[in-house]
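Q: Could you predict the 3D structure of XRE family transcriptional regulator?
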Amino acid sequence: MNEMVTIPREEYDRLRTAAEDLVDLQAYDRAKAGLATGEDELIPAQHVNRLLNGESPMRVYRDLRGLTQAALAEKAGVNRVTVAEIETGRKQGSVATLRALADSLGVTLDDLAE
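A: Sure. Here are the predicted structure tokens for XRE family transcriptional regulator:
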């Protein structure tokens, strides 16, 4: 059955604003839950700006984690020269190498893609 309800415009606007606020609160709750479980992390603005300015994502995430090229290479099981060449753009690195580096940095493979 097709029922219709008429309400004043002011009430309609209030209900619409409340619905939009509810969506925002739910997004906030999901973000907080992701942070609490470790599924998501906050990245300092200085590191985000470096990424936005086109700096090598591997270098930015390596610095964020406080690792040297040698420490990252050892953790990922790759050569330090390979890390340096990928960071400087001289080499792209194989998918297997990039995956090992991403896993060692605690990021996704997409996070290292430029």
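Q: Anything worth pointing out?
A: The chain has a mean pLDDT of 94.
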